[in-house]
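Exam revision sheet. Question 4 asks you to relate a sequence to its structure. Input first:
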Amino acid sequence: MKFGVVVFPGSNCDDDTCHAFGTLLGQDIVKLWHKDHDLKSCDLLIIPGGFSYGDYLRSGAIARFSPIMNEVIVHANRGGYVLGICNGFQI
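Answer key, structure tokens:
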């Protein structure tokens, strides 16, 4: 199974998430930048915690409109797996 970790400016838990799933659990991990439009054939998408865009407006409000989130929604609507952790769940 291939895991994609979404990275937003200001978020700070993407490296921890990659370490936990990649190094400790031995999963194939790919970082997905917030401006990406390609999910790189990931089976499970992880939106990690942290403070996307510094939480300047409100939790996840700006991140919600990032290009990658359109792809996450399409993935979820097709039955794909999505895991949101802390702020990532709010997005």
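Marking note for examiners. The chain is about 30% helix and 20% strand.
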